[in-house]
Amino acid sequence: MAPEDRRVNSKAPFSIGFCLYIIFMVFPLLSPGEGIGEHVHEKVLPNGLKVILIENHRAPLVSFQMWYRVGSRNEEWGETGLSHMLEHMMFKGTHKVSPEEFSRIIQEHGGNDNAFTSRDSTAYFENLSADNVHIPIELESDRMQNLVLREGDFSTERMVVMEERRLRTEDNPQEYLVEQMDATAFQIHPYHWPIVGWMEDIRRFTLEDLRAYYKTYYNPVNAFIVAAGDLRKEELLPAIERAFGSIPKGKAPEQDKGSEEPQKGERRIFVKREAQLSFIVRGYHIPNLLNHDGYVLEVIEAILSGGKSSRLHKKLVYEKELVLSVDAENSLLSRDPGLFYLSAELLPGKEVAEVEKALDEEIERLQKEEVSERELEKVKNQLEASFVYGQDSMFFQAMLIAQHEIASDWRAIDNYLPSIRKVTPQDIVRVAKQYLIPDNRTIGILEPLAPEKGLPAPQASSIRERMVR
Questions:
Q1: Would you say 79 and 217 are in contact if contact means Cβ atoms under 8 Å apart?
Q2: How far is the C-alpha of 397 from the C-alpha of 394, rounded, in Å?
Q3: 451 half-sphere exposure, CB direction, 13 A CA radius
Q4: Which of helix, strand or coil describes residue 71?
Q5: Torsion of CA 344, 346, 350, 355, to 10 degrees
Q6: Contacts within 8 Å (CB) and 24+ apart, 140-143
Q7: Distances (CA, A) of 433 to 336, 357, 368, 436
Q8: Which has fewest Cβ within 10 Å: 52, 81, 132, 215?
């Protein structure tokens, strides 16, 4: 839940070059008992733009990130995909910067840039040497206020987005199933539609729709900056104020999207697509980080699928030999309450009913038997290690802070470890009984059809891909 050249092939995971670049941004982050908030400085400019800075001088590098509080949740029926389309168009230039020049400027200075759209936000980032941090400041300020939207660029890029949808979703049976399951689970809330948008909406919206969307959501009061690395706030803040301070504040868009009505019974859908293996995905309605139960569900996720020693992997992969892979995912950092996902790719010859029974048995075990202190401690240690080491680079630390800011407030990041440590075996039983029940779930089942002769089988994907690049 960004480009290397903003086109379809750029929407894949980060390039090898970028991964190597990130390696050199690694630095020890936290000392025992230390909170991330102790490293952060925040200032809100008069026009409403929030600036969040994290100083660390271990390496002469900076990750500069521009976040907008707009994603697919901000779209309307019939206009889905506008957030993602605008992300593409943000690289088509201003009066000062010609189309495609933005990335070239960053690369000429030894940096790397990218962007992505999620359900809740759109983010743009540049990673480069600290002495060049003024470059993304100037470029991001320019395109926040001076983006030039041309009909020719729009028509071309819309075709790119349509092809991206075909490749990522319509030609990917598992991703298509997840999309259909989400649309069934969310009937009122805008998490109903996909980030990339429905194909008919992409075909239908106009350049004027995009201009109106840009004017509504791309302004200081609806954005924030996160910069992490070898910076000094007394130098960087004035530079940011000079570049962004004169941009009109704009009007804060309405962000309250209401809530989904409580589900009153199981929903079940079937999708028939060309595929090699059957696939099942379940979604249970759950709270996010604003409710302590969200952290209990983090622990449940780890118990069920945290590595090869987890319950689902041991039971369904090793012992019963029912599935090729099995996974759980908790939507802790969604802005609105999301889903707790369970998914499994079946081995050839195995029946969906067998896998469903095995999944139900593991859920019922959580509801009836308290987790042992030993297993719980192991899982908590895994989560803590993952949380800390996941911030070993300036880029990922800044991203995690920004994700908390989108979901609630960046300071909530310091609640994560204490909240995980508080989870008890009794909490797990209670939460499993409350949320992981049949009446609260939507189930999607992929029934594979044989590929047409001479055509390759569609590729599988990870359910965790919740951002569109």
A1: no
A2: 5
A3: 13
A4: coil
A5: 0
A6: 140/64, 140/66, 140/225, 140/243, 141/243, 141/244, 141/247, 142/94, 142/96, 142/97, 143/90, 143/94, 143/97, 143/102
A7: 22, 17, 9, 6
A8: 215
Which residues on adjacent β-strands are paired with residue 449?
274
Q: How many CB atoms lie within 10 A of CB 458?
A: 19
**What CA–CA distance (Å, rounded) separates 177 from 448?**
11
CA separation for the pair 468, 1 (Å, rounded): 6
Q: Where are the domains of the chain?
A: 8-244, 267-449
Number of Cβ within a 10 Å radius of residue 391: 23
Instruction: Give pLDDT < 70 ranges for the chain.
Output: 1-34, 453-469
Q: Which pLDDT does position 390 carry in this prediction? A: 82
What is the model's pLDDT at position 333?
98
Q: Are 23 and 395 in contact (CB under 8 A)?
A: no
In contact, 93 and 208? CB cutoff 8 Å? no
Q: What is the pLDDT of residue 17?
A: 39
Give backbone dihedrals phi and psi of 230, rounded to 5 degrees, phi first.
Answer: -80, 75
Question: Rounded distance, CA 213 to CA 210, Å?
Answer: 5
Comparing CA positions, the residue from 460, 24, 49, 454 lying closest to residue 250 is 49
How many helices and strands (H and E) does the chain possess?
Answer: 16, 11
* Class of the domain covering 8-244: alpha beta
Tokens linked to 156? 């071309």
Secondary structure class of 305 (helix, strand, coil): helix
- Express each pLDDT in 257-303 by its tens digit: 988 999 999 999 999 999 999 999 999 999 999 999 999 999 999 99
Residue 172's nearest CA partner among 276, 78, 281 is 276
Q: How many CB atoms lie within 10 A of CB 238?
A: 11
Residue 132 CA: distances (Å) to CA of 63, 138, 211, 439: 11, 11, 31, 55
Element at 101 (helix H, strand E): helix 101-108
- What pLDDT was estimated at residue 13? 32
CATH superfamily of domain region 267-449: Metalloenzyme, LuxS/M16 peptidase-like (3.30.830.10)
φ, ψ of residue 303 to 5 degrees: the values are -60, -40
Burial class (CB in 10 A: 0-12, 13-18, 19+), 10: middle
How does DSSP classify residue 123? E
Strand order in the sheet with 50-55: 40-44, 50-55, 223-229, 61-68, 122-129, 112-117
